[in-house]
Automatic annotation (TrEMBL):
GO terms for cellular component: ATP-binding cassette (ABC) transporter complex; outer membrane-bounded periplasmic space. This is Peptide/nickel transport system substrate-binding protein. The lineage of its organism: Bacteria, Pseudomonadati, Pseudomonadota, Alphaproteobacteria, Hyphomicrobiales. Keywords: Signal, Transport. Its main location: periplasm. Belongs to the bacterial solute-binding protein 5 family.
């Protein structure tokens, strides 16, 4: 318990991140931000897309955010609750947050504990789908102690009770605006989902889905000197090379998110001298998600669901393992990422205490071993060299978002799989659609109507409990939960569920690390996720921007109210 207390105090300590003095609100004019993945919705509870979550973070606040150094900082709360200050109960079954009394919603109405209670009920509604459901694992109830105090009760002891309302994925939404949007009605509330009333530094001025969001400074923001910028334009679409060029070469934009540009092209852009690359390694992993259910469109509503039955060939572990063995990850890093990428064999690569070494064999490509494994499993080459068994061909539809680096990675992996007798059809989807929250689209990464899909994911903060909870059975996207969930492979294991539950009530940091590694290893050794590259988070910032530090533990825009225009 002493180690736990020390960790909580260290995590909750005030950040030493230095900020320059800000001018009066709005004095720095307009801020132009480029996201090559266009924003599709401004309600993070209804989207797993990072671009939607980050765009929302300019409007909506959680009780606390993570700073770039990984520490927690109060946002709507007055302090980080700990055992020492009485905010976390001795039995670890409750956490009590004291709320600021100087916060109002952007419409001028009071922010109270009732809004926090409502936000929890909104996400926990059994008839709805909530992208942040794993953040609320083991929450038994949320109660308003008084107008500015809220208590979260857990069904088990929670050594890390900071899942609910910490970080941009689980903010507080206004009860008055969303009260008629509970459960199955949530996706239907277009006006609220496209223009949430918030407590953050900006408010929505205009939102054009899958195109552009314009914001203006929130005149009711709690700090009268913030934000420095009067307006923000967040333009979406295009590709990463174009958005990066708009900052580093043309100077048209001030900030470009998620730089995915080949190293030699990036060097050429940097030579113009208009901006700089900012980066930090957190927990981002470019990975292949393997479809365990049948995505055949003939199945109708049962397509890519447990009810539709197992995948015709990816349900065979030997096939999944062979696909991983055939990949030369060093080449993928060299060609697509350079110093901003590292080979990884884990979906949980950091912090270091959680990083497993049990899967390191993936660092070495083994084409002959992959062939032998398929031979042994009865998958034999046909007349055209493509392996088949009982009339089923190893023919893969491999999808990802549209981006030159990702398409380059796809092409390389296709060649590698060809070597072992696997046929691959490549598909790329506009990122705004792929990572979007459109319930009617067949092309979202959560519907996953393909055999393999590739993208990067990470988690808020430094504790992986909620993140590893993404692969419990209840997180499988399906029509029943409006396709909201993070278990894209449709992996379901009672043993994994038990490990996740045990981590939720384990205090020892060493034991928590052991459990996290076991969960990681189960996913890796079942080959339901095939990790490729531990990616640094990389963005481009104009030389005219001040106070910008890349945040790998939360939304990159979580502290945009601190950004300034340099003279």
């Amino acid at each position: 318990m002493r180690k736990l207390k020390t960790l909580i105090m260290a995590t909750a300590a005030a950040s030493t991140f230095a900020t320059a003095a800000l001018a009066e609100r709005g004095s720095d004019g307009n801020l132009n931000i480029a996201y090559w993945q266009a924003v599709s919705i401004l309600n993070p509870y209804l989207s797993g897309g990072t671009k939607d979550i980050e765009a929302s973070s300019l409007i909506l606040d959680p009780l606390a955010n993570y700073r770039p150094d990984g520490s927690m900082e109060p946002a709507l709360a007055t302090e980080i609750p700990t055992i020492e200050n009485g905010g976390v109960s001795e039995d670890l079954k409750s956490i009590t947050w004291k709320l600021r009394d100087d916060v109002v919603w952007s419409d001028g109405t009071p922010f109270t504990s009732a809004d926090v209670v409502f936000s929890a009920n909104y996400c926990l509604d059994p008839e709805g789908g909530c992208n942040a459901a794993s953040n609320f694992a083991d929450v038994e109830s949320v109660e308003a102690v008084d107008e500015h105090t809220v208590k979260i009760n857990f069904s088990v002891a929670k050594p890390f009770p900071y899942g609910p309302f910490v970080g941009a994925t689980a903010p507080v939404i206004q009860e008055a605006q969303f009260k008629d949007c509970m459960g199955a009605k949530a996706p239907e509330c277009t006006e609220a989902n496209f223009g949430p009333i918030g407590t953050g530094p900006f408010v929505v001025d205009e939102f054009r889905a899958n195109d552009v969001v314009t914001y203006k400074a929130n005149e009711n923001y709690r700090d009268p000197a913030q934000p420095a910028f009067a307006t923000v334009v967040l333009k979406g679409g295009g590709d990463s090379a174009a958005t990066t060029r708009s900052v580093l070469e043309t100077g048209e934009f001030d900030y470009a998110w998620n730089v995915q540009v080949e190293p030699e092209v990036l060097d050429q852009m940097m030579a113009a001298g208009k901006g700089e690359i900012i980066s930090a390694f957190g927990t981002s992993v470019e990975r292949l998600m393997v479809q365990l259910t049948n995505p055949d469109p003939a199945l109708g509503d049962k397509r890519a669901t447990i009810e539709g039955g197992p995948h015709p060939f990816l349900s065979d572990k030997a096939v999944r393992q062979a696909l991983s063995m055939a990949i030369d990850r060093d080449i993928l890093v060299e060609v697509g990422y350079g110093p901003n990428g590292q080979v990884t064999c884990n979906v949980l690569p950091a912090p270091e205490i959680y990083a497993s070494t049990a899967n390191d064999a993936c660092k070495t490509q083994d084409v002959e071993g992959a062939k032998a494994l398929l031979d042994e499993a009865g998958w034999v080459p046909g007349s055209d060299g493509i392996r088949e068994k009982d009339g089923v061909r190893l023919s893969i539809l491999y999808q990802t978002s549209t981006n030159s680096v990702r398409q380059g990675t796809q092409a390389l992996i296709k060649q590698m799989w060809q070597e072992i007798g696997v046929e691959t059809e490549l598909r790329n989807i506009d990122a705004g659609v792929f990572f979007g929250g459109d319930q009617s689209s067949p092309d979202t990464f959560q519907k996953f109507f393909a055999d393999i899909e590739m993208y990067t994911n990470n988690f808020d903060g430094t504790d992986p409990e909620a993140y590893m909870g993404n692969w419990v059975c209840s997180e499988i996207p399906s029509p029943a939960n409006q396709w909201i969930g993070n278990n894209m492979p449709r992996f379901c294991s009672e043993e994994y569920n038990a490990l996740s539950a045990e981590m939720g009530k384990t205090a020892s940091i060493e034991k928590r690390a052991e459990l996290a590694k076991k969960m990681n290893d189960m996913l890796m050794q079942e080959y339901v996720i095939i990790p490729l590259i531990h990616r640094g988070r990389v963005s481009a910032a104009s030389n005219t921007l001040g106070n910008v530090v890349l945040n790998p533990w939360d939304s990159e825009l979580a502290f945009a109210e601190e950004w300034t225009r340099l003279d």
